[in-house]
Each structure stands twice: as C-alpha cells, then as structure tokens.
Model the fold of this input.
Amino acid sequence: MTLAIHGGAPVRTEPWPAWPPPLDDAQRELVTRVLESGLWGATQGGSVVTDLVAAFARRSGVPYGVAVGNATLGLFAALRGLGVGRGDEVIVPAYTFVASATAVLLAGATPVIVDVDPYDLHLSAEAAGRAVTGATAAVMPVHLAGSPADMGPLNALAARHGLAVVEDAAQAHGAAYQGRPVGGLGDAGVYSFQSSKAMTAGEGGLIVCRTEEAYREIWSVCNVGRSLGGAWYGHPRTGWNLRLTELQAALLLPWLDRLDAEIDAREAFCAALERELAAVPGRPVTVVPPPSGTTRDSRHLLMLRVSPEVDRAFLLAATEAEGVPLDAGYPPLGTMAALTADGARAEPCPAAEEAARTVVWVRQPMLMAGAEAAAQIAEALAKVLT
Ligand SMILES: Cc1ncc(COP(=O)(O)O)c(C=O)c1O
Done:
C-alpha cells in the first residue's frame, strides 16, 4: 500500500467520477439520429443547433442566440458584433481563465486587467470604475466557478460610461443573479462547452443576446460576414465560420434536461463540504463565498481559501497523496508576460495575487462524488493541515 505523506493509508483510494459522465439514452438517440441523417454541419438544414440555441436563449431570459465553435470565439464574436475593436479597451478581471483576455486581443482591442473583490474573487466594480478611460468600450464580468459576478454595480458602471457588457458565462450554465439567469444580464453572454464544463460536447460555445441588432451583427461575425437571410455569397461585413456542428449540439440539447439535477447534486456536495470544513479544529480552510446577489450558484468549481502561512505546493502534493487531488487555480492575468507583450494593460491586482497564493480548487467531477467524498476532502485537508 502507498503511504500518504502524513503517514497511514490515503484517505481515499477509489477513483473520482469521470467527466463527462456516461452518455444518457436521450443523447445516444439524438447523436445516432444526427449521425444517420448525414446532416452534420450547421448549414445542411438540420434542426438540433437551432433547438439548442432556442433552449439556451429561453433559459437565459433573452430572445436570441448563436452557437459557436468555442467560447473564446464566442467572446470575440460578441465583442466584435457589439462594435468593439481596434483602439478600444475592454475591462477584464485578473482572476480568470486566460481566454477572457485573449478573446479581447483577438477582437483587436486592449484587455485592461483589473482586480477582483478580495471576498468573492469576482470582478470588482470599484476597481473596474478606476480603470475606465476615454477608450473603454466594454466590460467583461466573468461568472467565475459557476457563481454570478455582482452584476448590479457592474451594469450601473457600464450604463454610466456607455460601455457594452459581455458576460463570460463559460463556467456558469444554469447560474442566476437576483433570480435572473446569467447570460441575459448584459448585452451578450457566452457559454462554453469545452470538455471541463458543466455541459460539454468536447468543444463548443454559445452566445446569447438581448437585441435583434446585436443578434444580426453577432450572427454575421459567426457566418462569414453574411447578412441573416441574405445571399450565400454576399458578405457585407468581415466575418468567419465560427459555427457549432449538429453532432455537438446533439450531445448538448438533451443535457439541458438534467443540468439542474446535476447542479443540485454539486450544491449538496458543496454544502456538505462546507459543514465538514467548519468542524476542522482551527478552521484552516474556508469556502470562498459567492458574490452577493447570487441566487443560483451552478458550482462549476469550489474555491477554498487556506491561510497564507500554509505552503500551498506542499498542501497540493500532500492532499494528492491522500487521494484528493486539488488544483492550484489561476495565476493572475497581469503576471502573464505573453498578454502584456501583446498589449494588455494590467492595473494593480493585490486581491488576485493573494488568491493565486492562497486559493485551491475542488474541480467539478469531484463535486459529483456524493457526501461521503465531501467528508474525505475535509479529512485529507485536516490531516495535512492540523
Ligand atoms: C472563464 C472562461 N472564459 C473563457 C473560456 C474559454 O472557453 P473555450 O475553451 O470554450 O474557448 C473558459 C474555458 O475554457 C473559461 O473558463
């Protein structure tokens, strides 16, 4: 038997749930139907992408949507469709996946990296307000870890300065803020279906938006610059083929029927883990809370804060040896030389830097493992830290 770093048997030896979960019957049936139809591409007349877009728009509380190849391209297309491009600045949070910023670069604009709220680690409206200049054209709140960004103050800031709001909802399918679904809270919202996400087709993305004007522009960006209903070889704008396939949509459409049940399971896991952690002597680990206004946290990840004195590299190695692999999370975007070399500007971001030193993540598949596994995570942390 392999001994854990702190001696004795590892807390957990059984494997964690796989992601994605096994296909369900509805997915198998729809994928087979699409496969056998030969209508695999998005322009061959199949209906599954259309149905998926309609379902996501409905769930997001908006009338329009466009499915795309991934969320990076979705963020790019949303920005470009909303008129953001060369010479413009876009405010992004410092504690997020790098694609939030690279999508801005792809649009030809400048990512302005600003700090997050030290409490919930989402984009701080105050820090965003300090970063607004005459060139600011948009703000990109990220619904990090499945928790909605605090959209009230961010939307108010955007309204004050005439900024577009593009929600990065890549991690937040099914989340809600003040009772309203994410994605429909700004001018456009973008979901990801990349392989680690709550719903996945291996890759994929989907943009939702509120106005017909934005929809027409975003659709055109994603459809080689055509106009909706216009000529096949008419390209009044510059655009690209950014489309999702019918086969990908066939994996995703049936998933929507079980999304809420899966969020409920992760929510129960997180509640159990939080209870267990509260019982560890000295409470060395706490759960990073969701922003105020969160009414549905989709629990893509659970972020845990450990005290700054803890050697985090040791913690990660020791918990892994206990059969509990945790994740170190993001480096702050402002520390990524490649981004600044490409023109990104970083404001001081002490809260993101602190998070990069003190926060560890429990990844989504682990959150599907049931209450007993939650107790094992707390036990491994207690064993390593107390
Ligand atoms: C916050 C965030 N934004 C954007 C993306 C980019 O999504 P994709 O991989 O679909 O391009 C991801 C995940 O990959 C993400 O986590």
The chain has a mean pLDDT of 96.
